[in-house]
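User: Hey, quick favor. My workstation is busy. Could you predict this chain's structure for me?
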Amino acid sequence: MTTTNYLYNYCLRLGDNALILGHRLSELCSKAPFIEEDLALTNISLDMIGRAQAMLKYAAEVEGKGNNEDHLAYRRAEINYYNHLIVEQPNGDFAHTIVRQLFVSAFELYMYSELEKSKDATLAAIASKTVKEVRYHLEHASDWVIRLGDGTPESHHRTQKAINELWMYTGELFEMDEVEMALLHEGIAVDLVPVKAQWHNHLKNVLSEATMMMPEDGYMQTGSRKGIHTENLGHILSEMQYLQRAYPDATW
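Assistant: No problem, here it is.
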């Protein structure tokens, strides 16, 4: 692979994470527990879809084949998506949604804070905007986990259950393969080792305040870097891509 190919793949990874979780959160529009939370989750979804648009637009430019962000979002097959497995997991109950957001937003804050230093000016600019948004996302998720964990026995139980079930998807967040290593050498990508330490410390503090137990690392799910996904991604794409695939040449 050339540096251009690595950069294209890296942009897809970042764009796909935002696109798929943004779509997941959009499913909750009008279905949150109350109006203010409905607006909060929808706004987070819009932030992520906006970031996906920027990342996939840049990926298309790097690819240089005349595609655009819409083509990359709606015309790729499941095996050509590289989002982390955690973002494609179903919303579940409210505790499950919030815990997933906590895990992802904590990762994104520290990862994008490092990506701001990238020698790639476009990635650094997208990262700078993302950090401003993700600070709110993380504060929102952290506050809710504390509220749920230190709330009723039922909310505590559901939150701990969500933590336990989603933990096996967190190890993949910090995997680094030849793409990241090559771009890290060029000063473009992020070293995820220190990011993991910051992520772990943040979660430790939040879960402690929420009176929740942090699971021990054990078996971790992986595969997204090779286009291997859970069955959930296929269901997302069948809904998300339907209109574009049914009417591929349609214009507004």
